Amino acid sequence: SQDVSNGLRSPICCILGHVDSGKTKLLDCIRSTKVQEGEAGGITQQIGATFFPVQNIRKRTKELKADAKLNVPGLLVIDTPGHESFANLRSRGSGLCDIAILVVDIMHGLEPLTIESLSLLKMRGTEFIVALNKVDRLYGWKICPNAPILKAMKQQSKDVHIEFGNRLNQVIAQFKEQGLNTELYYKNKEMGETFSIVPTSAITGEGIPDLLLLLVQWAQKTMIEKLTYQNQVQGIILEVKVVEGYGTTIDVVLVNGVLREGDRIVVCGMKGPILTNIRAILTPHPMKELRVKGVFVHHKEIKAAQGIKIAAQGLKHAIAGTEMHVLGPDDDLEYVKEAAMEDMRYVMNRIGTSSVGVHVQASTLGSLEALLEFLKTPGVNVPVSNIGVGPVHERDVRKVSVMIERKKEYATVLAFDVVVKPKVQELAQKLGVKILRGDIIYHLVDQFKAITGCLNE
Ligand code: GDP
Ligand code: MG
Fold first, then answer.
1. Which of 64, 116, 136, 355 has a CA-to-CA distance to 6 between 20 and 30 Å?
2. C-alpha span between 29 and 18 (Å, rounded)
3. What pTM was computed for the model?
């Protein structure tokens, strides 16, 4: 069904925003098939992503009377909303997510994680559309299920229009404070310079057609080169997971090319490059009601853009947020191994390691990079002496303890979304090393600032 017409592949889309802004609900809403009663509409569940065929998008946006042609095969929306998958969809620092939805709760405006999302988007150079969500919560809102937003607005009272206008202006002003111009999408005459806002409700569906159409139209209009399908395999590891019956598997977004069972692949590992053969290429079973654990469809070969699971030997130490390389018959193994480790080196090289600074440990390369970027920003400015991906080990703690004599507050591990075993924690305590854990960047940094603040007094 993923017919690569016009030589274009499906744009890859991520959803970002503050906690409770409605990211998950929005994803559910665009995934919902209730719109065209009983029709599945060709929406397919992949690993870590949902594929929306262009026919489905065309149907759902019919009321918008879009005259422009839709040239892409569909839209591939990543299923894990939030920072993690977006941060991991990376290649040497730039973003492989083609377009993002930044969700803002109309009742709350910009919140800390909205601003963090903005800096991530900026760091990766990713285009985005703002979904100004929860419009149905405006006082007196008349529900118009799944209607285009202008049609829905016509049904609203004067009071709703006034409240909407006030809140919208507030949000636009808040974006302005962040150095960004934003405007309602149907008033936006300079897309690219000015970011578009689409009012939505993830509960009642108003504005969803607008959002879908805008995503596809903008992507195919401005990203032709990026979306032109390439034979050269490009795949990125989003997650490393143990699955019963398959051992450690990697969840990969195949951005370009064709992958086959038996292909030799090289991936970046914590203990050096991993060379292995693809044992199985897997996607979820289409019949969801038969949700038997571990039931996957096996593919002999599969074409981008797709979310897939790969089973192979030796993947235990694979690092999420790095590229997967396929070893062709004419490729030099050593060269490909070097290339696979390049991702890790790229991040290492970007931190000007100072001899005095904290140790930063994260679960994936993408989140490590995001955290390091944040630590560098003016006003935060936390020096880093060492970094790592994966669980914190005793040897890390020993290394960090050396910092106690240089600058006590920097004898700290900032552990982002990683496991710290009790015996590692014990050792840290014994040696006077602090391990701060968190899975929200600014919380972690706030914790650190609070401690250093105390120490300075
Ligand atoms: P996330 O943390 O960003 O993924 O937010 P969720 O999708 O989990 O939504 C958080 C809460 O807001 C849930 O209780 C949702 O039901 C609610 N919610 C999300 N979107 C909307 C919306 O458009 N309208 C209303 N009224 N509630 C919403
Ligand atoms: Mg959620």
1. 64
2. 18
3. 0.92
